[in-house]
């Protein structure tokens, strides 16, 4: 997977959250998390620290924004 593909996974995760409709928030959050974990793993695999950090930051944001 090249950096462009990895970045696309991160964008897709963001879009899952951005366009989540009421009632599907939990599903979209889980889908976004899976995409971000995949992106982080792929970025680690190619040694792209910037993309690793970007995926980790979004994962942290996702955890912070989790409903109580």
Characterization of the model:
The protein contains three helices and no strands. It is mostly helical. It has one domain (3-64). The radius of gyration is 12 Å and the shape is elongated.
Summarize the structure.
By secondary structure, this protein is mostly helical. It is built from three helices and no strands. The radius of gyration is 12 Å and the shape is elongated.
Q: How many distinct helices?
A: 3
Shape: elongated
Query: What oligomeric assembly is this protein in?
Result: single chain
Domain count: 1
Global structural class: mainly alpha
Task: List SSEs in N-to-C order.
Answer: HHH
Q: Are there runs of 5+ residues with pLDDT below 50, and where?
A: none
User: How many strands, what sense, and barrel or not for the largest sheet?
Assistant: none
Question: Into which percent range does the helicity of residues fall?
Answer: over 70%
Number of strands: 0
- In terms of DSSP E residues, the strand content is under 5%
Measure the end-to-end span.
35 Å
